[in-house]
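Before any further analysis, backbone shapes were mapped to integers, which produced the following:

***
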Amino acid sequence: MFNRIVLNVLLALSLMLFLILLGLNFGLISIKKDYLLQVISDMDNQKTPSLDYFANISSINLNLLPLEENFPTRKLFYEYAPHEYSIPSKIYINQLGDDVFVLERGRMLFGRFCVPCHNTDGKGNGPIITDVVLAEDEEGFPPPKDLTSENTRKLTDGRLFHILSAGQNLMFSFHDKMNDFDKWCVISYIRKLQSKK
């Protein structure tokens, strides 16, 4: 008798699950889809600036946006793989310079995307390295690159743009999180950090 009750309950639950999945499949039941898996909070769904946003900034030449002759824009995927850096290294040039607005935007984006690994000073000792408590048998992350080091200073702006777009080693691509203008702002800010050393 007890086995029969359990069997009937399992059959009822299976039928309910089947009906729910069928409803999801045909769109009769909807689920919230605006959530994203975030590695670090505030890294996904970033607002990107529009041309209207820059309309009152007199020091930025709007003709440079979106810098169509300088690098690929409006592409879903960046065209170069992480190991293909020689061409982007030579052809991509940062035309934004060190305008006050560019540096401030770069600082804000650096704080959002880069500080967890590279820290505010860019030296590669961010909270993901220093603040994560590891178990006895865990190794943790290898230290990220020191962005103020001599080796990083020697990299061209185009190479830094490529690294932000395609990723490098354990660093994943930020091509889906930052538009091209914002990447150049971050690169300008990194150059400012390097000049402080």
In short: The two ends are 79 Å apart (CA to CA). DSSP finds eight helices and no strands in the chain. The mean pLDDT is 78.
